[in-house]
Amino acid sequence: MKVVVIGGGAAGLMAAAAAAQNGHSVTVIERNERPARKILVTGKGRCNVTNNCDVDTLMSNIPRNGRFLYSAFNAFSPQDTISYFENLGVPLKTERGNRVFPVSDKAMDIADALVRGIRKSGVTVINGRVQSINAVDGAVASVRLYDNSEISADRVILATGGLSYPGTGSTGDGYGIAKALGHTVTPLRPSLVPVCIKEGFAARLMGLSLKNVTLTLYKEGKKKPIFTEMGEMLFTHFGISGPLALSASAHIDGLNTEGYECEVDLKPALSEEQLDKRLCRDFSENLNKNFRNALDALLPQKLIPVIVGMSSIPAETKVNQISKEQRLNFVRLLKHLKMTVSGLRPVEEAVITSGGISIKEINSATMESKLIGGLFFAGEIIDVDAYTGGFNLQIAFSTGFLAGSKVTF
Questions:
Q1: Which CATH architecture is the domain 2-189+353-405 placed in?
Q2: Residues 145, 29: contact at Cβ < 8 Å?
Q3: What is the pLDDT of residue 255?
């Protein structure tokens, strides 16, 4: 059977390997000269391959449409992913939060292994850009490239990725190809993307990284927070970035960012009462100092003038003149540093694209289109996305493997 895989990223290469291992003649069409380019920029160049967890944990880290992936995760689990790469000669390690990385800390090793996997299976790779998929009598028949060449196909797996990181080839081509065949593309928006903040103090703190803080996201009209997590974040000229901000962005409607507010707990390990006692101890050691000079042991140097300016205590106030009420207000500020969301950075800066081919039009047990026979989908092009931590790459590997395994049916 002739199988054509459009897209040589994580999902496409996994799909190609799975199909070839089942004895099919497989061709991958990749617009870049080198496949798996997006892999190289994941995990800050280290590649967070997967998350070493069970299927239930995987599902809990997918904010929308998680149930659709149940069959895919059971067909190819994180443990299967780990075994796949280690069998291809890439030793892996599990770090904090069960995040899995190559021991070498080099994303290139994962990209090379994916290419090695398809080469071993006899897959052909063509450098080209697909214009359309041709269907005859409701089933795929061939693939047409922009150079007007045509490749016949019994099965086609569409794995072109999303809109994020267009420099790696993810330019959204697949959405148009699927639309032309009658598929629905749900609204596309950035996810796992830096967050823009209205307040000017973010720009003053540009470059400051905060570790072991808690970021909580609120939405106007909702009593409970819609996201809260402890970890690391980074201030930028436009707002906040880093793991916490990226995860929070998955809960912000990229089409309407009005009414969202972030709150940072700078000392989550301490209750307000405990933090007040800590502050009292610090103050007792600096009684004759000005307030702004008495916080070195408590806060990063760059943060001190900003926090002092936001407090109700004048910077030049002697520590021994600070009232209990002023001190308690300052404690509350440290535990509830508020920021107003003004927007998200563009989808080109996002780790992944939220939205895509409607899951209502895809058979979750096979990844085959319900509209066009022999057409399968894999990876980010589908309307599924997850939080940071290796979950999105696992979606790519699982859906790719399932699609490649089911092309026979």
A1: 3-Layer(bba) Sandwich (3.50)
A2: yes
A3: 78
